[in-house]
Each structure stands twice: as C-alpha cells, then as structure tokens.
Amino acid sequence: MFAITGITGQVGGQLADRLLAGRRPVRAVLRDPARAAAWTARGCEVALAAMDDAAALAAAFAGVEAAFVLLPPTFDPTPGFVEARRFVAAVSTALRAARVPRVVCLSTIGADAAEENLLTQLRLMEQSLADLPAAVTFLRAGWFIENVAWDIEGARATGVLPSHLQPPGRAIPMVATADVAQTAAALLCEASTGHRVVELEGPVRVAPVDLAAALARALGREVEVQVVPRGEWEARFRAEGMRHPLPRMRMLDGFNEGWIAFDPHSPRLRKGTTSAQAVIDGLVRRGG
Q1: Residue partners of 285: CB distance under 8 A and separation at least 6
Q2: Per-residue pLDDT reduced to its tens digit, 101-141
Q3: Would the pTM count as exceeding 0.85?
Q4: What is the CATH number of domain 2-143+175-202+261-272?
C-alpha cells in the first residue's frame, strides 16, 4: 500500500495515476471528505487527515509500504514560517509513530540554500526528517513549468509575458509536473536504504524567453518578455494580496543571483523528458 498526500494536486494526482496504472494499491490521504468518493471510485483506500493533525496522519500512514509526502504550499508565509513548522512537526511525528519504512518527500531546488527565502519551508522539512529511521528520499524538483499557467490569458490578450526571473535569456532548471510524478512513482517503488537526495529538472534548462517563444507557438501570436524591475516587486506583490512578500522576493533573488541552482555535473541530478513546449501546449488546450 502506498499513501499519497497532496493527491488532489498536480503532482499527487499524476503520481496516483501512475501507481494505479501499475496496479499498485493507493491510499489517498485527503483533508476534504467531499473529495473522497472520486478516489474511492478509482479503487483507492481513503484516509481523512489534515496535514497538521499528527494523530490522523499516523493512522493514514499505518501499515503502508511507502508514503509520499507533499508539504502544503504556503506562498505568503507568516514570519518564522509558522504554517510550515506546524505541518512539518505533524508529518514528522506521524511518520515516526506509524514507522513508515520508506518515504519520498517532495522537496525543491534551493532546499539547501543558506539564505532564508520562500523555499526555506522545504529545508525545514528536510531537517526535520534527517534522523527519521526509514529509507528517505528527498526529491528536489526544479521550477515547475506549469507556473506559466498564471500568465497565459495575459499573454493571449496582450502579447506580453511579465517575468521576475532575469535576465530574460538566462536559463534555469525547470521541470514538468508529469516528470516529477513519474520520478516520484519510480522512487516509491524501488528498494532503498538510508537517506538520499535526488535532484530533478527537465531535458534542457529554460529561460523566460523560451517560455515566451513556446507561448507564441501555442497561442499563434507574438509574445515578448517584459522584465518586472525588482524595485516594483514589493508593491506589486502587496497589491496582489500578499502580506509578507520578502520570502518570495528572496527566492526570486536566489534564482537571479545563482545561489538557488543545481550543479549540472552532480551525480544526483536526473533529467525528465517533457519539454516546456509540450507543457504549454497542454495548458493552452485546457484553457490555462
């Protein structure tokens, strides 16, 4: 039995698809009981547990062969990462109580960065599970290509792709959620011991200008990158409703300054097969 948290999200849902297609038994760990029927109909067991409820999570993880752990994303964290620390404490306690033998934790590029930023939340998770008496794989994924979905309608209407990543021709590690799910499925099913880090990016590194070119092909119109000056970030983010924009700003600084990165020669680096064009074509077909 494989327990999957975050199963209603992009990565978790695609991971479940792959396990079910391989006739692997899946236990869907859900917070919302209204979503249970759909997963039961697909042949999953369902366990109800909020990600900050250690007792419910321990019950959800009980007796499983392996668990996939996805920390709920908090894009506007309270100073000190209060939300993430609450989730991390509950998950860590639950995994220990249930004695899960094998764990795959979805982490991120930048989880090893020394400077505090939005991705520090995943660093906290890695640190909390560092002494877990189980086989643990931290799957550090690159920037999700699907993040461009937020900009598709704007690009369709105006021909502009705003970018906080800069300079616009600088490529960074990006990856499709399909490749993350495929890799996670393989890692869950393979025998392993001890703790390890697996880094994952797409077949080639991607720059904002590459995303604009892919959008242009998918939308059938010209699309150009418009760099958002750093001096405007805070006001823009606050106008979008953020109360604490600094962690997000520092994450973007990390990519732009190069201290959030993968070593292209690292032996723990793996590459997916899904191109940015394929992802964007799919997003446009589905309406973003």
Answers
A1: none
A2: 999 999 999 999 999 999 999 999 999 999 999 999 999 99
A3: yes
A4: 3.40.50.720
